[in-house]
Amino acid sequence: MNEVSESYRYIVRSPEVRGGNARVEGTRIGVHDVIGLLQSGETIDSLTASCFPTLTRAQVYECLAYYEDHKGEIDLLVSRQMAPGEP
After folding, report:
1. pTM, full prediction
2. Chain segment 51-78, per-residue pLDDT in tens
3. Distances (CA, A) of 66 to 29, 43, 87
4. Under CATH, what is the fold of the domain 3-82?
């Protein structure tokens, strides 16, 4: 069963999906995936057009809102994801 945050309409955590990290509901796209791409120069429009065409702009903005409230958690996940030698 998904644990849905009271504060976020589109963000969920499930222990069996993506290691329990925050992700967009109904997808395997982690909040840290979205934030990492934005930090690497993608725009909201390029994210929704090319990178993750299944995401809506509202879902991307929700990832940004989650990031604002959980910077430490997401920054750690992004840095691990971007580290050389990581899968």
Report:
1. 0.88
2. 999 999 999 999 999 999 999 999 999 9
3. 14, 17, 25
4. Arc Repressor Mutant, subunit A (1.10.10)
